[in-house]
Structures are given as structure tokens and as C-alpha cells.
Amino acid sequence: MSNLQSPPPNLQKGEVWKYGDAINTDLLFPGRHTYTARGEKEIAEHALEDLDPRFAKEVKKGDVIVAGKNFGNGSSREQAVTCLTYNGVAAVVAKSFARIFFRNGLNQGFPLITCPEVVDAAKEGDEIQIDLKRSLIILNGKEYPFPPFSPSAMEMIELGGLIPQIRKRLGVTSTEEIKVSSGE
Fold this sequence. Notes:
By secondary structure, the protein is of the alpha/beta class. It has 8 helices and 7 strands. It has one domain (11-177): Aconitase, domain 4 (Alpha-Beta Barrel), CATH 3.20.19. The protein is 30% helix and 17% strand. Helix 2 crosses helix 4 (79-85).
């Protein structure tokens, strides 16, 4: 499992994990582990443990979280996103997202999709497919369009996050290659 995983395929398929409104960052990744959990495996093990203790043990690569309003409110720590990506979660579909969580998701190349109709229709365990290129979710055989990502956001998702996007734009393969001017 790696945060710098290969870019998501155009069509992602998995099962729904359904949650309600106001799932905050402490429910996604408990704050008590912020400075003690080390490495991807340990961070992944604590995902949603206070909300759904079975999640980290049973989630499968490609599964999708579907939730209500204000998903990801609370603190700005990256582990609230990376604990999901390290577990192989393909995306979160919600009625709305906290702004800072949404930005953290994009920075990690993690698709966060606003689609209230899917939230209302989905049930735990339903089969869900997400076509990022066509901005389309297929849930139980029915198609639901969602607002398309901007070209820049889509590039971030395809490349695996903000850092890979910046590296591509600068034409470098590692951050160490970047020379920062002192302004003199």
C-alpha cells in the first residue's frame, strides 16, 4: 500500500461503505494516533476505528465510501486522507465535503466526488463503479452524473497528487532536483 500509488484506473469498481453526515477527521483517523502511528500499514490499521471497527479489517481495494454532508470536517491532518488511500479506498462520494479535507484529498490524488443522488440511493454493500473520465457513477445498474473535475484537479488525480503534478510540470523526477532561489 502506498500513498504514491499508481494512478487510479478510469473505471473503478468496488463495494459501498455507507456513513452519515459530519464524519469528521477524528472519526476517519483518531487524533490520538497522529504522532504515534508510523508507516503506511500502521496508519491504515487505525482508519475509522472509532466509527466502524471492522472497516480497516474488511475494506477491499477499490471500495468506495459514500457519506452525507460535510465529510472530513475538523483538523487538517493528512492522515485523515492517507488512512483511506493506504487501505485501497478508490474514492469518497458525499453530499458535501469540508474544504480543507477536499484540498488534502486532491493533494494526495484521491477522488472526492459530490453526488447527493448517489448518497440517497446507495446502501451498504452495493456495487458501485466510478468512471472519472466521463464523470459518471454506476450504482446498481443506474447511472448518476457528477460535476467533472477541473483539468488541473483531474491531472492531480491521474498523476497521484500535487507533488507528482509539480514534478511533471517542472520536468523533474524527484523533489531534490528542484533548486530554490534565495532571491538574490
